[in-house]
Amino acid sequence: MQTIGPALFAKTAEGRYVSSIGTLFPGQELLVTAPPMHALQRETFKEWQAETEAAGAMGSTGLNLDWQAAESVDLILAPGDVVLIRPELERLDLAFQADEQLHELWKVPRHRIRFLSVRDPRIRQALRERGELWRISTAPSDRDQFRDTILASRVAIAERPIYYYNPHTGTRFVTLAEFARLTECNDAELARQLDEIGDHCRKRNRHSQPEIAFFGVDPLGFGGPNFVGTRFAELAPVELRIRHAVLTEQFREAVEPVLQVDDIQLHNWRQRMFSVIASEQREEMTPEGLQGLNSEFFLRIQWLPGGTYEDGEFFFSPVFPQAGCAPTDPELKPLWDPLARGFISNFIREYGNIEYLNLGRIGASPLVSTKHEGRRGVYLAEIKVRGEVNPRVLFLRLLRWGIRERLEELDENNHPKDLVRAVFDTEEYIDYTLDRRLGCLQFGMHLPARVNMRRVSEPYVGPRAEFRNRHFPVIYFERDYLPGIATDKIPDRRLADPRYARALANLMGKAAAPNLVVGRTRHPASEYVPGEPLFDDGDEIIVENSAGVPREIYLVDHGGAFADWRTPTLLPFARAYAQPVNRRSGFVPDPKAFAGHYLKALEAELLRLQAEYQRRARAFDGLFKHLPYNERGSFACRWERVLARLKSADVPVLIAEIRKYITVLG
Fold first, then answer.
1. Same domain, yes or no, for 300 and 436?
2. What is the DSSP code (8-state) at residue 6?
3. Mean pLDDT, range 450-462, rounded to an integer
4. Of the N and C termini of the chain, which has fewer Cβ atoms inside 10 Å?
């Protein structure tokens, strides 16, 4: 083990890395951190290798030095002493050798070693098969993270740190503002800086990407050809300044006005800069995440350390120092989940012969809950069962109100609930959740075909001291992941297709009808105020046919169904059910036709539901007769009220009321 250059993570007095990149040569267990370019670091390696062989310190390998230098892995240092590995797609074995050596020899914690280029299916597959999708370096997701990423990307080569570095491609971007600011340099510095830019903007790195590119310009408008034939160090000072001024003006003419000033507070500049330093720009890049999982969803998942299979035995990840206990290290806390081991154990018990599995969390940690909102934990699991062609992708959703949440409620006498009451209330809520699903199916709503109830256990960590460290079951529901596009995230270009827009309008009108009937709202209605309807908010998934046209809409989460059962008519919901048309009127080719198809489908489905109820009233009325009935809102009571509301609805009047709120129809 040897390092040529500054130590890994060595910092200046200002807190910046002395060297923000490195090249690791696994065959020699050698890390080169200087000079500040991967290509030059490989040249440094060749000099070291030649000197070492000549001195007899090691036997000659008999291999060409260029071949030996190619057996290397590019590293980039990120804030927080994180090492990003940029894999060579044809030699992923070297990337994983580097991973092991960084951890074992250079003592970099495993959670601080991440992999780039994760959109490439080969890299994802390699990490997937190791059960290590959590090792993916995920993209920032908010404004502050965008800003911090841009600021941290500033690098130098040999002169000033004027470049913005893309770790995926190895390209350094220079902006017009930085280029123009070189007038502040003395003559010698200016000449060296311009020669550096001129030399490297005409070179390609090992990934066939330019070493230096110019931010915000088409390469045909300004680039390497503008520097051809000029050695700036040989120019007289006056000629040097004139040449720099000419290049600056040529650069300015090629850049959009909004990108001519570097201002990280400006949205357009910040978004464009982030896009160029975060882009992978690989021809092999594909949009899929997991099997059938779109990339936007894939990159929103917080993948969790799980474990790997070795010789048929499952070993939990050694990332956490003490199994089953929350880590004290703040860096590890985002990767820890109190329920992860329980989920994994359930998968192993159920499927047995598993090749690999990956578990991810979507949204906030399940430790976070509020008195009024309950628990919102949602997870995604990918399980490859030996002998099956494709992995199974499963969606897990925690029961919103469990024992923990019930223990933090007060009973009718304003006293904390005892454990027996909390358990019984939880069981009642489980039945209520399943009854809601049955009620939705009875009205013809398209829900996922298979939903299984599972349980794991967790220690109680709430405010009731008498229950601390006791383990209580946590209920969750497991279903197959349904690939498709959420209705509120359909790309504009698809809405602009007349065939797509017409099919979507018909399906949305049809899906809106049962959603309207069952009173699916965000919060329960009071005795006088209707609830806020839930529809077209991300839970409705479009499944397309082979021609790319919407074929069906599925409701993947029926939460909120039967929440509003008190409102006696459907008319108060009219404004909300006009919004699916209004929010798309600026994107579909014929907004009036879109509105017409939507209303026609909605009216037809409502009339069909009324006719179906009249034809089979006995079946509908008797579906939940066996359940306890009370006027405070038992499910039997809610079902009765919803049926009465459907029976009494004047559908043409309701459709006319919705039409009043559709903007394009006046």
1. yes
2. S
3. 91
4. C
